[in-house]
Amino acid sequence: MRRERSIPNHLKRQTGVALIAMLLVFGLVVILVSGAITRTSLDIKKTGYHLQYSQAYQYALGAEALARALLHNDWQEDQKQKRGDHLKESWAQPFQFEPEGGLMRVQIRDLNGRFNLNTLIDQHGKAVETSTKHFERLLQQLDMPIQPALSIIDWLDKDNQPRSSRGEDVFYQSSENAYRSADRPMVHPSELVALQAFDDIDHTQQLRHKITVLPDIKTSINPNTADRALLASLHKDIQADDIVQVRSELENAFTSNQAFLEHSVTAGIDLSLLNLDVRSHYFEVWVIAQFNDQIAYLRSLVYRAPDTGIITTLYRDQSRNDRYNPLLNLSIHSPSSSPSVSLFKGNP
Ligand SMILES: [Ca+2]
Ligand SMILES: [Ca+2]
Fold it and tell me: Of 75, 82, 102, 330, which has the maximum CB count within 10 A?
């Protein structure tokens, strides 16, 4: 009888080692391939998000272009009808569009209806007394201390002589994170936080809703769009509530500077030192645009030239979570009642 030859032990061990090695290689290949698949899938997702965000941002830019067209058309109508700018005009109403796969919400704000902090200094970087007094009256209207006006002027003016205990380098360099005062016009309203003029952060936030900073130190205030507090700050004898009521009753508010200055609401009040104009030139365009899951935020500062109506975008800010974004807490009417595409007619 033939006996089967048994496999020698050393050969059995070698077969086992080869099997384990093969399994290890196979395992390694599986890990590498699954890693590559995961990375590729993440890359595809990332690219997808990026493309969606790009589309959302393009929608935001489209919304800004629409706002610019609206403002230019308004200028043309103002020229024809000899009127200024007021809050019942179509540019002042928030609106919403729903393009394919997305959503665009837009709100235009008139910045000539706010106090421009940069008007506190002149072209030589020196404080302007009329503006200082005006700003102090505004702070009083808002039940705030007036001392911070001096800190703000210290931040803006060219010299390094403190007008207040919270001003100039001597104050900012004693901070834990030392820095220096700007000594030039502000470029963003958030500088208000850096200059620490107010003890109470609520005052800083409250003031942000009332002020602006524009790249022009001689801007005017529009009595048709200024709010009650700003109107009341124009002069100690002015009755802001009367102005608000009268302008809301008039079809086109005050249609000229003369109409405002000769109206009974300003009778006997000398406003000649103030720079008032019922036509507005600086606007901010707030946009929230969505495409699929991605949302783009945009705040654009635009300038409308008074003689040509040509609109120039001066800067764009894409900050998310901006607490001053008016669109975040706003109910907006549907696209069916929003301005029509005829807006594009006559766009510069
Ligand atoms: Ca207008
Ligand atoms: Ca200074």
Answer: 75
Residues with CB under 5 A from ligand 1 (ion): 74, 78, 85, 89
Alpha-carbon dihedral 76, 79, 82, 87, rounded to 10 degrees = 40
Is the pLDDT at 93 greater than 60, yes or no? Answer: yes
Which pLDDT tens digit goes with each residue over 38-74? 888 888 888 988 999 999 999 999 999 999 999 999 9
Tokens representing 256 are 């000229």
Separation of CA 151 and ligand 2 centre (Å): 9
Between CA 218 and CA 57 the distance in angstroms is 33
Q: Identify whether 14 is part of a domain.
A: no
In which domain, by residue range, is 317 found?
Answer: 49-112+279-344
Residues 104 and 140 in one domain: no
Confirm whether 5 is domain-assigned. no
Closest ligand, as measured to the CA of 254: 1
